[in-house]
Amino acid sequence: MSNQQPLMQPIDARAACIQLGEDLSWLEEHTRRQPDLAAQAAQLRLASALVRNTVGPYLEKQAPTPLHIVVVGGAGSGKSTVVNFLLGSIVAEANPQAGFTRHPVAYADANRNDAWPATAGYLGPLQRLSQPTPSNLDEDVYQLRRITPAPGFSLLKDFVLWDCPDMTTWAATGYVPRLIEVCGLADVIVYVASDERYNDAVPTQFMHLLLEAGKPVVVVLTKMKAENASPLLEHFQNEVLRKLPGRMAALLAIPSLSPEELADPAGKAGRFRIPLLNQVSVLGDPPGASRQRTVRAAMHYLTSGADGFLSVARNDLAALEIWRALVVSGQANFDSRYYKEYLSGEQFHRFDEAMVRLIDLLELPGVGKFLSDALYVIRTPFRLLGKLLKKQFSRPESPQMPERPVMETALNGWLDQLRAESLRRAGQHPLWDHLAKGFESNLPEGARKRFEELFRELQLQQANEVDQIARAIYADLEKNPGLLYSLRTGKLALDVAAIAASFVALGLGHIWWNVVVVPMAVSMTQALVEFFGKAYVDGQREQARRRQQALAQRFVSAPLAEWLLQWPVSGGSSFERLQQVLQRIPASIQQLQPVVNDSIQSRRD
Ligand SMILES: Nc1nc2c(ncn2[C@@H]2O[C@H](COP(=O)(O)OP(=O)(O)OP(=O)(O)O)[C@@H](O)[C@H]2O)c(=O)[nH]1
Ligand SMILES: [Mg+2]
Q1: Model's pTM, two decimal places?
Q2: Which mutation among 70, 72, 80 tests ligand 1's pocket best, with the greatest number of atoms within 8 A of CB?
Q3: Tens digits of residue pLDDT in 333-384
Q4: pLDDT, tens digit, for every residue of 446-466?
Q5: Dihedral sign, Cα of residue 519, residue 522, residue 525, residue 526
Q6: How buried is 58 (Cβ within 10 angstroms: 0-12 exposed, 13-18 middle, 19+ buried)?
Q7: Three-state SS for 418?
Q8: Around ion ligand 2, which residues have CB less than 5 A away?
Q9: 262, 122 in Cβ contact below 8 A?
């Protein structure tokens, strides 16, 4: 045992394996819906199969034996024939009909009687057949045939041998995923290619995938004329293997055999069988090390491939990114319409009241009030004149739309724009189909309902906000007696100076003119004070408008945008699951790695 503490409880590791296997499978299914991503779907299937069939059982302390040999290759390449060679007797159905074997068939030693692994999710969706069945049954099943080996050396002492369907195409569905599921289990791969089809694209890509996943691969070339065996091996080495990652464990040839040799692999064809047996059995010796290599390689494939696995979601993420951009630009339109059509025309009459309060504050209190009143009386003729002129020249205020309908219209505009874009893009990606359907059903209603809630919240916030700014106009001054005193005396001094100046200017000779000039002078000082007061209040009013806009953004348009952004990725849609899966896959792999390392170090088998 290692002296390190396991970083995760066994039950957590088990749960993490199950979750990771399910997430990778979900992403594989999701990827299969895009036909041009069939090869990536295969990678994902292999990744999930490695988790289910290699990493998971290892963490559950499964014994290293039996190891698994998996025979793969193109249709009719001779896989079932090679299985019979490895077993030394004719048990697998070799058949001239290419693509005969349709589900994986496992051969195990009847004498070993190992309990068949029962870890969670073992072999994924493949159901084990309970009855002996021909290998051409085309269903998501596998079968286990326990056989009694002929006397002498038997691979089945340490191995289970799998005969598999072909992988001539990356067919979106069908039997290829069954084959990949079993490859996730493999400790050794035997790759069979016939002389006519040794360079087929898909089988070669498949071998590439297996080598990337760190599987030891023994290549068997079949059916060539005996004299062509060496040149073909050399040619294959140069043309095919050289371009692949990693190194082959072994490369050998079984030339075209006579029916008699085919019928007697252990006897008449023994000279071809023995080298093959040697190459394969050495890879399982000792079994503990072999299994450890399988697990390490699986973990390496998972950790180094994580980014690649997620790249299948590139199209999905790109579509989501476009949706985000559309929603955000709609939000900007909404905000600017709200400002132009409502806020810019809003006068905030609370500010007019604040202005009156401010000017009132500048009047003298107590005894001084008599003086203020006197000045007020003196200003009377010009005040009346001013009012009259203002009435004559001021334009009537234009009728203003109330806030709510403005926002509702802006929201409708926003939704219409998004609906049009989604319809336009429908067919390009499932996201747009999902959104287009949403716009035809419950999306607009949901958005309006959300708007109602947000608008109520905004109103509560606004009432406080505008009041506070307006009140601050005079409240600040009230709280600052020193400043208030200076402003009042300043204003009085201005009035007194104006009166004095008129007396001095007119002199004693025209003293009666003062009846006209003094009221004019004190009216001018008042106008001056009101002018500055108004400029200040208008500044505050503009600031209130900006604050109001910020509030509307914070309480209405930003949460609405968030709601719209989330719509396709919530409510149990596949995009919701996609986002979860994309986050969880790398996290689970990272979580599992130290647990697997710890387990490898602590095992001594
Ligand atoms: N004459 C001769 N026939 C062979 C040889 N190897 C394989 N065959 C025949 O080729 C055919 C296909 O071989 P299988 O072993 O069934 O090939 P497979 O790869 O399992 O094929 P599928 O399961 O259909 O993908 C069978 O009829 C075999 O008998 C050989 O060396 N010589
Ligand atoms: Mg076959």
Answers
A1: 0.72
A2: 80
A3: 999 999 999 998 887 777 777 777 887 887 777 767 777 788 788 778 777 7
A4: 999 999 999 999 998 887 777
A5: negative
A6: buried
A7: helix
A8: 79-80, 101
A9: no
